Amino acid sequence: MSDGRAAKRVANFIKPLRVEPGSEVDLTEDFDPRYKAGMKKSEGLELLGTGVSLLADLQARLAAQDTYGVLFCLQAIDAGGKDGTIRHVMSGVNPQGVRVSSFKVPSAEELDHDYLWRYAQRLPSRGEIGIFNRSHYEEVLVVRVHPENLDRQKLPEEAKGPDVWHRRYREINDWERYLTDNGIKVVKVFLNLSKEEQRLRFLKRIDRPEKNWKFSAADVHEREYWDDYQEAFSEMLSATSTPWAPWYVVPADRKWFARICAAGVLAHTLFGIDPQYPTLDGKARKELLAARRGLEADAP
């Protein structure tokens, strides 16, 4: 399949997932966590394999061109499937061209800087795909649901007023516009998990010994704030899906379908860049041909 046909197919596939800039999102009403586009799992797994191969080619061209970088932000509630999505979607690409960053509780050094500082340290370079497993959006999600975290950020009193979240939305939008203007494409995926599916995944982590390490009692505690998170997610999606850095809400109850969608969103971004292998100028071409002649003459 040509790049043009593949790009059009991918664009049509992910279109229902895109949060239109300026729209008001009610996550519980507007996006179905069990949506699967009428696709069967067997068909989906085959499509994922094709998508992984496609990403490998696009990523190789991105690295060779060395002009654009891609920042892929992945957000989800606990058990949303972030790690598995990264593992499956990026399984075919060259590890040298991808960097995954996870963000935990901020360190003392990080708290001594502005809230975007630690994320800026992990931005991808040109030719690289950088994946944020959780991202700067934690600063308007976890910090909002648990405002005691805002106090730990050592802000002056005038910076902690009631407009703090709207101000942060604006600052994040401006930062992402700055990145995009400088050749770092920003794409954002929210894995939309239902409350019932989260419950079942937690139970599986408890019941299966090989998954025990993934379970934390803190996860169940966070579940008590489900409605608060849904409200924070909805407002975040409404305020920060922009033409230069749109959000895609991926149905996450079926892991196989979520992975296909995430691969599609990333491929769509790379198709938009349309990276190409560099071509040699006349002088470099002559040097290449001269090197070839020398190597041929050196044959035993």
Question: What is the fold's blueprint, element by element?
Answer:
Layout: H1 3-14, H2 27-30, H3 41-65, E1 69-76, H4 82-89, E2 98-102, H5 108-111, H6 117-120, E3 129-133, H7 142-145, H8 148-151, H9 164-181, E4 184-192, H10 195-207, H11 217-223, H12 226-240, E5 247-251, H13 255-273, H14 282-297
Task: Give your account of this protein's structure.
By secondary structure, this protein is α/β, with parallel strands linked by helices. The chain contains 14 helices and five strands. Helix 1 (3-14) crosses helix 13 (255-273), helix 3 (41-65) runs parallel beside helix 13 and helix 4 crosses helix 13. It starts with a helix and ends with a helix.
Quote the distance from N terminus to C terminus. 42 Å
Beta-strand fraction estimate? 5-15%
Largest sheet: 5 strands, parallel
| Biggest β-sheet: strands ordered side by side in the sheet | 2-3-1-4-5
Number of strands: 5
